[in-house]
Amino acid sequence: MEHFTSHDLHLSDVRLHLYRGGHGPAVVLVHGLTDHARYWAPLARALAGEYDVIAYDARGHGLSDPSPNGYHLDLLAADLAALVEALGLTRPAVIGHSMGASTAAIAAATHPGMFRCVILEDPPWRSALPADMPDIATTRAVWREDLLAMKTMDDAALLARCRAESPGWSDEDYALWMESKKAVNPDALDVLPSFVRLWPEDVRRIDCPLLILTGEPERGALFDPGAEQIVRQVRPDVHVVRIPGVGHQVRREGFVAYLDSVQRFLKDAA
To answer: What's the gap between Cα 248 and its chain centre?
Structure first.
């Protein structure tokens, strides 16, 4: 991330690596499972002209330490809150994708008054009840096997796979996707069981403006229409933008529309 400075932040039990650049009100970026902070580079550059942008590697990802205490969404949310406090940030905005969206939502729910606003990119929230969720242990085992296989692939094979699965991404996003998969600790997948939670309670407790950016479930978006209906019941003031033609990777597949929604929401929440 050019023009961003690189830092290590030592929390109580783990060292987190972060990048910081720009000037203005603070915006914290929280990446998804098996991604890393640098994957935010296009958005970070776009926001740095008006905001103090901080992107960090979650424990077990990128250049941060593996977790000595396992992996759980509540722990990741505590890390986010500790980072905000350690850096002395005053009511920053927070933007999270997927796992990072859950992390941001839980941190906001458990730390009232901490954030100016919350922007969630396709949170892994579905209308199904926890009892109806798929076998998480099987999912974790399959994902781990796949991740370990990717770590053994050369760059050409890994790039070919990403291009086949995600046509239309930028060359930068392909490169950063490959980089992130090489850098993640497979044990970070142990966070998956904690995705099964009563997430509407997290939404109910968020005390600041909330924007959800998502795509089409037919293209892989996780935030389904049933979940949207639940969110609107819990938070009638929520802003939901469902960008056509994109799936779970909302900003990578629809960056222009994504950036426009983010910039307008950040200005309105100032």
So the answer is: 11
Yes or no: is domain 5-268 CATH 3.40.50.1820?
yes
- In 92-209, where does DSSP find H-type helix? 99-110, 136-152, 155-165, 171-183, 199-205
pLDDT tens across 81-103, in order? 999 999 999 999 999 999 999 99
Q: What is the pLDDT of residues 182-211, one digit of tens each?
A: 999 999 999 999 998 999 999 999 999 999
- Reported pTM: 0.96
What one-character-per-residue DSSP string does 55-100 give? EEPPTTSTTSPPPTT---HHHHHHHHHHHHHHTT-SS-EEEEETHH
Host H or E run for residue 268: helix 255-268
Q: Are 1 and 42 in contact (CB under 8 A)?
A: no
Averaged pLDDT, 131-137: 65
Instruction: Identify the residue whose tokens are 């579905």.
Output: 126
Radius of gyration of the chain (CA): 17
Grouping H, G, I as helix, E, B as strand and the rest as coil, residue 191 is: helix
Residue 60 near residue 184, CB atoms below 8 Å: yes
Q: Which two tokens stand for residue 129?
A: 């009840």
Give the pairing type, strands 15-21 and 52-56. Answer: antiparallel
Domain ranges across the chain: 5-268
